[in-house]
Amino acid sequence: MEPIVSDADVVSKKTKLAYSVGHVLNDLSASMWFSYLLVFYHRVVNFSNASAGYLLLIGQIADALATTFVGFESDRTRTGLFHYGRRKTWHLIGVVCVLGSFPFCFNVCIGCRYSDLWAQFIYYAMFIVVFQFGWSCSQITHLSMINELTHKDGERVALNSYRYAWTVVSNIFVYAMASVLLGVHNGDDKTDITPADAHIFRTLTFIVVGLGAVCMMVFHFGLKESELPAEETESRLQLSLTSSGRLKRMTWKCFLREKEFYQCAAIWMFTRVILNVTQVFLPLYIIDTISTLDRIFVAIAPLCSYVSGLIASFPMRAINKRLGRKITMIVGLTFIFSSTLLFWFIFQLKPLIPIEITLIVACVLLGIGTSTTNICSFSLTSDLIGLNTECGAFVYGIMSFADKLANGIAIAAIQQFNPCSANTTPKCQLYYRQILSFIPAGVAILTIAMTLSLWKANIGGNRHEILTSDRTKLSAYKSNLNDEDYNERTPLVA
């Protein structure tokens, strides 16, 4: 049976552009959140390492809980507020929450700057919870729209790639602005960040919120969400697949009974842990472990990582077409292994290679690896959902729940046992060196093992039925995924 794909499944360039910028506000704010939260709260606000870690944990728990709630409610919503669209309504709620709360997260405590630290902790925690709720609203609904905009595998992967490309561009923008702001500051200390730098983070936050708001207007004005009820949409999908087959209706309980659901969730979680742990502790590695570099490298190093990730995404089409998603994932993980080796042996290589060069090369390798693995994990999850968009937000919600909870617990635990004080010590230098080398490498090994467990799995398949001539008897049918539109080797970047 030949698949029948309607013209509506080919996403227009205008829709792709509008969709791709719909997560930019989240990407900009997340870049600041993971890269500079510990630096800001420990070195500017003067919280202890543990307290700064607990603030991040509070945010991650709030995000994890919100993703599950938003996933359920978004799937249950029919047409949204004033028929605005069920996904776009929740997305707009998230945008309002982020715009209203994020500027307070990276600013001095208004009206309580000189209050006790416990009072400031409560102040920041309240805004962080609102920010994380809004962030999850926008993230889950934006992801779940992919499978509703198109049912062609190649088009879905393209949307995932464009979305991630804008994520990379957003991070590049944040680090570029941070490098400018840190570089032009006329302070006495060129290697450390102090409370005197509070205005730098405030300015960067306002820039992030302003640019993010513009992109959100492009998304909401430029993208039209389907007004068809879920049942009618599913019926159209059944007809678009085969002339005589129909798609099984999936509930959230059905997804929970699939082994591949947990395997894809683990891969999603592992790849995000690698990305976020390196993103959080790279600035501290530069400040405390290396300690001799100008503080502008706090922005330049992650900037190089994301630029390399963006560049590496272009040839990935040919690589993935030849190797497939799973081998491409393993190739990306080898780049991550290489970067961890350089982070560990950076001082041993000093007689041969300047520390600055070794650091930049390590960040470039890390950027290539994290870009590859994250696009692969997004695409595997999209494959898992397939045409069953009735529970798309739930699936992405659970994936994000595991990701946020794992990251929050890991980073809080690292900060709890952090031996560093205000001054750099040999013990502190070794600590961040171990964190940036051993944790990404260990998690990469787990990711390889989980990828190998999916080697022969037909992700998202086995959900189709053939209607007999009398339309009374149903027999299970395995989808033929050798067709170009449903090929595991569909390019990651269209």
What report would you give on this structure?
There is one protein chain. 69% of the residues lie in helices and 2% in strands. The protein is mainly alpha-helical. Strands 1-2-3 form a three-stranded antiparallel sheet. The protein starts with 12 loop residues before the first helix and ends in a 17-residue tail after the last strand.
* Percentage of residues in strands: under 5%
Mean pLDDT across all amino acids: 81
Number of helices: 17
Strand order of the largest sheet: 1-2-3
Q: How many β-strand runs?
A: 3
What's the overall geometry? globular
- Radius of gyration computed on alpha carbons: 23 Å
Structural class per helix/strand content? Answer: mainly alpha
Order of secondary-structure elements: HHHHHHHHHEHHHHHHHHEE
In the predicted model, the low-confidence regions spanning at least 5 consecutive residues are 1-7, 466-494
Quick description:
With 494 residues, the chain is mostly helical. The protein contains 17 helices and 3 strands.
Question: What distinguishing features does this structure have?
Answer:
disordered N terminus; three-stranded antiparallel sheet; 494 residues; mainly alpha; globular; disordered C terminus; 69% helix; 3 strands
Write the layout of secondary structure elements.
Blueprint: H1 13-20, H2 24-44, H3 49-76, H4 86-105, H5 117-144, H6 146-149, H7 153-184, H8 198-222, H9 230-241, E1 245-247, H10 252-256, H11 259-290, H12 297-312, H13 316-323, H14 325-344, H15 355-385, H16 392-416, H17 426-453, E2 464-467, E3 474-477
Antiparallel strand pairs: 1-2, 2-3
Helix pairs in contact: 1-7, 1-8, 2-3, 2-7, 2-8, 2-11, 3-5, 3-16, 4-5, 4-8, 5-16, 7-8, 7-12, 7-15, 11-12, 11-15, 11-16, 11-17, 12-15, 13-14, 14-15, 14-17
